[in-house]
Write a structure and sequence with these properties.
By secondary structure, the chain is α+β, with helices and mostly antiparallel strands. It is 48% helix and 15% strand. The chain is built from 16 helices and 13 strands. The protein has helices at residues 5-36, 54-57, 76-91, 118-125, 186-194, 262-275, 316-328, 348-374, 378-402, 409-438, 443-475, 479-509, 513-516, 526-529, 550-559, 562-585, and strands at residues 59-66, 99-103, 107-113, 130-140, 212-215, 221-225, 230-231, 235-244, 250-260, 285-289, 292-295, 307-311, 335-343. The strands form 3 sheets. Strands 4, 5, 6, 7, 10 and 11 form a 6-stranded antiparallel beta sheet that branches. Strands 2-3-1-13 form a 4-stranded antiparallel beta sheet.
């Protein structure tokens, strides 16, 4: 015999739920296996166990000290701006539950869960001052000159060179633009000749309105650059991705894509329009990061749309790090690492266990309440909570290694709150079914009618919770952001479980004899609910509230609305009048 439509829908929904669970498990399992094999890729750090946050695991504490010249001071506004930028850089890799605070008048303390990698440290420490300078002269540098030789850094040649003050430092003719070779004075040429890329050269004092002698970041080329023509602050957005050629084909090399604001677009258009008419190397413009050249492409055409691409020896991680630094801006002042030390968990495993015990107690109370109120129907509640817990664990485990999420005690709190959210959805649905049974429907019909009414209430409730979670996630920082994330995840999972498990399960059990015939322990007993319908195709006239006896009558009386009570009293009055009239006639 062919299955009915509700049964087919139920099996289809349960199949989709199984596919979702299997897909999440397969994704996490495959990534974990690849990570354990030692191969690098998008699965780096994959594990079945979510990472813990600073309050539960401990981590690394980095103290940054402001680098100030003699007589210079740092303002409170500059420190606050630096804290904001560092937080944005760290959070751009995911919700890492880091803590960034001011310490005194000149220091910033950054606390990060676990041991940060080099890219994360660069996000914290780098000032990322990006500038665009025209190239005046350049040449390649031998490995020995840049420190490729093992003794190069220890040799006298690696000492920073001081230009001869007796040489002329004034241009023989006033330069007409930033690409004018008149910028190269006798003193600048002497500095370039003796400049060593392997030396610890101080580039932090270089002025934007003067030429600069510097090297590439990998030390393989030396440059004389003209004054700055475009600032990094003119960039409105920066992203990383695979570079493309002039035909739009991927080159399989990583690049940083830049978008300039209106002022930057005009400036960059002027620069590239001038450079395209010059001979090499003057047709090149150098992109400098903290006054070191990261790339020096030639201008083959004027770039007038404000969109540029930085290419070089980037990897996916290094290109993302640079893009994040440029997107969120340069630090207003330079910092040096004053200390870098491990710290212990502020709450530790004891508090985590306490939180989990609290959640377990709440779960047990929900189960006990379900058994008392819904009896055998409580097994659907328990199974639904188990499915929700499984989905939540898989999602958090994937977010942990893929997006840098770390589970804090606030996040655990969000998971505990989710138990109440999920239980509330079950109660709404079960009570709707009971209302339908009281109206005289059979159980199969009550399940479908109750679902249509309940799902609107459930969606409205979960929507409010989800909007609250989004608001907290956007506006809050630190642990509150972690709470908001877990609250949002569990709210979405609640809808999935109710639609793909709870409702299909009720569609199936409604066809069983135990529930369909209203067993006393089923939680759907028509007699206990005071339903109008009694047995298959058997109905009875509603009994006035005062005439109902037993537990079923008392419960039904409590649930009657004012209109229902008036209607029952009116019916009772008519019955009494009719009885008196018949007595008179007789």
């Amino acid at each position: 015999m062919a299955r009915s439509t509700p049964v087919k829908k139920a099996i289809r929904s349960l199949t989709w739920l199984l596919v979702i669970i299997a897909g999440l498990a397969a994704l996490n399992g495959t990534a974990t296996a690849l990570n354990d094999s030692g191969r690098d890729g998008w699965w780096d750090g994959a594990s079945w166990v979510p990472e813990l946050a600073l309050d539960l695991q401990g981590g690394t504490q980095i103290t940054l000290a402001a680098q100030l010249d003699d007589g210079q001071s740092v303002s409170s506004q500059q420190l606050d701006q630096a804290v904001t930028i560092i937080r944005q850089r760290i959070d751009s890799a995911g919700v890492s539950e880091s803590e960034i605070t001011r310490q005194g008048a000149q220091n910033i303390v950054v606390s990060i869960p676990g041991r940060p990698d080099n890219e994360t440290l660069e996000r914290i420490e780098a000032s990322a001052k990006l500038t665009f300078r025209p190239v005046l002269y350049t040449e390649a540098v031998s490995n020995a000159a840049v420190g490729g030789d093992a003794d190069a850094t220890a040799s006298p040649s690696a000492t920073p060179y001081t230009p001869n003050p007796d040489l002329n430092s004034t241009p023989t003719a006033s330069p007409t633009n930033a690409s004018d070779l008149n910028w190269i004075t006798e003193q600048l040429a002497d500095e370039y000749t003796n400049y060593q890329c392997a030396a610890d050269n101080d580039l932090s004092t270089a002025r934007d309105d003067e030429p600069l002698v510097t090297c590439s970041t990998d030390g393989t080329a030396k440059f004389i650059l003209g004054p700055v023509e475009v600032q990094g602050s003119d960039i409105s957005d920066a992203t990383n991705g695979l570079a493309t050629d002039s035909q739009g084909n991927s080159t399989n090399t990583w690049a940083v894509n830049l978008e300039f604001d209106r002022q930057g677009t005009d400036r960059f258009s002027d620069v590239t329009s001038r450079l395209v008419a010059l001979q090499a190397p003057q047709n090149q413009f150098a992109v400098t990061l903290d006054n070191q050249v990261i790339t020096a492409p030639s201008a083959n055409a004027a770039i007038t749309d404000g969109k540029a691409q930085i290419t070089g020896s980037f990897t996916q991680d290094t290109s993302k790090t640079l893009a994040d630094q440029l997107k969120f801006g340069a630090l207003p002042i330079s910092f040096s690492v004053q200390s870098n030390e491990n710290i212990t968990a502020t709450l530790g495993q004891t508090q985590l266990v306490s939180g989990l015990i609290a959640g377990l107690i709440g779960l047990i109370l929900v189960v006990i309440y379900s058994l008392i109120q819904y009896r055998a129907l409580a097994f659907v509640t328990v199974l639904s909570l188990m499915i929700a817990a499984l989905l939540t664990y898989l999602v958090i485990a994937i977010l942990s290694w893929r997006e840098g999420y770390r589970l804090s005690l606030a996040g655990v709190t969000g998971l505990i709150v989710a138990i109440g959210i999920t239980a509330d959805s079950f109660i709404v649905y079960f009570e709707r079914i009971r209302d339908e049974l009281r109206d005289g429907r059979i159980l199969e019909s009550a399940v479908e009618s109750g679902w249509k009414r309940a799902i609107r209430t459930i969606v409205a409730s979960d929507t409010v919770n989800f909007l609250a979670a989004i608001t907290l996630f956007i506006l809050a920082v630190g642990n509150v952001k972690g709470f908001a994330l877990t609250l949002g995840i569990t709210t979405v999972i609640d809808l999935i479980v109710v639609a793909l498990f709870t409702h299909p399960m009720l569609q199936l059990i409604a066809r069983t004899r135990f529930f369909g015939e209203g067993h006393a322990f089923s939680g759907l007993n028509p007699k206990a609910l005071g339903a109008v319908y009694r047995g298959r195709a058997q109905f009875r006239t509603p009994v006035p509230t005062g005439a109902r006896k037993g537990a079923g009558g008392r419960e039904a009386a409590k649930r009657q609305t004012i209109a229902e009570r008036k209607a029952a009293e009116s019916t009772s009055t008519r019955v009494d009048d009719s009885a008196r009239g018949e007595g008179k006639d007789s």
